[in-house]
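Incident log, structure service

09:12 report received: a user says their structure output differs between two submissions of the same chain.
09:20 pulled the input from the user's history:
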Amino acid sequence: MIDQNDIRNIGIAAHIDAGKTTLSERILFYTGKIHCIHEVGQENGGATMDYMELEREKGITITSAAVTCFWQGSQINLIDTPGHVDFTIEVERSLRVLDGAVMVLCGVAGVQSQTLTIDRQMKRYQIPRIAFINKLDRVGANPDRVVQALAEKLHLKPIVLQLPIGREADFIGLIDLISFTAHYYEGEQGEHWLQQPIPEALQPAAQRARDQLLDQISIHSEAMMERLLNGETIPQDMIWAAIRQGTLSREFIPVLMGSAFKNKGVQNLLEAIVRYLPSPGDRSAIPATHTETGQAVMLHPNPTDAAVGLAFKLIDDEFGQLTYTRLYSGTLHPGDRLHNSRTQKMVRIHRLVRIEVEKRQELEQAIAGEIVGLVGVDCASGDTLCSKGTQVALEGMVVPKPVMTIAISPQNQPDLERMEKALQHFVREDPTLQVAIDPESKKTLISGMGELHLEIYLERMKREYNAWVYVGKPAVAYRETITQSAKFNYTLNKQAPGHNQYAQVIGHIEPCMGEFEVMNQTTSERIPKKYWSACEQGFRDAIKTGWLKGYPITGIKVVLEGGSFNPIESSEMAFRFAAYQGFEQAFAQAHPKVIEPIMHLEVETPSEFVGRIQSKLLSRRALLLGSEVRDDIVMISAEVPLAEMFGYSTELRSLSHGMATFTMEFLTYAELPESLLTEI
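09:34 re-ran on a clean worker, output below:
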């Protein structure tokens, strides 16, 4: 059994097409996990981590894949995450359970739109990270510009550990500023890692970069500072220790470089993962909540404590449900029984496995700090599983709201049964996919993060469940909100056969930054406590359907200030109905409006197509934010309503002869122009 200090739970995350999966493939090759390198989209099977047939066909990562490999005695539990914004939940839930991460950046494009999202996610979960600047063999690669963008756009403190030897097509190796040696990668697949003296012409620049590095990290070591002031040689172990300390405290991020496709720099990255990123024991204690008392509980990665784990990803295969689980404390064995804190039910682990992409390796036990698979456990993504008698719940993950909806209907009765089964499984494994029934048409509505997200699930429905459906036109997730405060004073005094109904609610509604909030400022003398929850439920009933266009209501705070009751005629149902009507009364007077999702758009295009692309964006109600020129490539930034972006990929290909690409992610909600209200 490997020592806990030698375990590294890490993820690889980046903007789409930065080279994450290619880098993961090299990591598996150099650690001996695989014996042949496959490329993304390759006809002979594609990359190892892209195990789904759809991933290999489309050449993109759709779902996060986990694998365990070993480097010089350390166990690396590696998760390769998607780069496309439609699958950002895969990054979110991976970072929720990981201890460290490698943030990959394209040496040409640098910090891109999805890089900003990943940076926010890493900061949210306080993940120490290493930056790897990839694709230095590409035309236009400029690592200095990427390092500058890390500081200016992400407000990080990068410390450069390497310098490239050559640029673009002449990129042949790296200078390690710590060992002060030149590194080259020979052999058909870069497997021969050579260390030689630095070329004489590059020594002055390398010395300046090393001096800057030592100056940046010496703040974490008094001994190093003293040696620097005295002009003494700094031992490598002292430099490594200072970099590790600063990385774990997230005061700076080490920056490494290379080209995964050209097999350069990956071994150095593996060294850095083991040397600088945390083991499970290096992370601070994990907060949890006692489900009975509500008190905070701190979990420590102690194998002898009660077992507590977080189910963060579900997969259905021929053996049943496989649950990816991060074990935060205790030890697990096959046959153990665990308590599900959400359902309050006991579940049994039929098999305990190490996840090897699409394969499984049987385990006899798993200790705190490991990421393993549980077979046969009935749970949902985000559930806390713990030993019997341990009533704790871990904090869940942030789940973004869907922005697009389509209506689907089965082609026949057998398709209906298969469709329902497929959707039931999909919703369990992906919290960003939501399913509902249209009360008017009775069609099934599925909502997701974008066109690609929904397209993938429709395709999986056909392939995995043989369920064929008719698909309606995509619909945007419009919302209704208010622009000012308004008061309500509603009295229900209804004469009913055998029993009258009486309830009065007084208060006001006002705009707020969150989705919905209820504040109770009344007293038990005016409304008895037993009716407070009924009032809140009435308000919540009222926001489900708006009164302008019937869209859900958001961004409203309800303040219940008072009211009155009748000891004989008042009831929970009466107060619930009165609250509903009071909200409707105030909503109509608060200048309600319809709001629409606004997306942040980035288009990467050759310079000759900029004019026509910008012109077409303006016709789609886009707000152009600016452009950035990188050699002959222009990055156009814009904010554009989601409703205007259907079919944009086809239009962009036509405008640029297939040479431009774009990425898009949800930014905010904004008021829909009145002239368009009649069109929705």
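09:41 both user submissions now match this output. Likely a transient worker issue. Closing.
09:42 reviewer note: Residues 180 and 203 are 9 Å apart (CA to CA). The mean pLDDT is 87.
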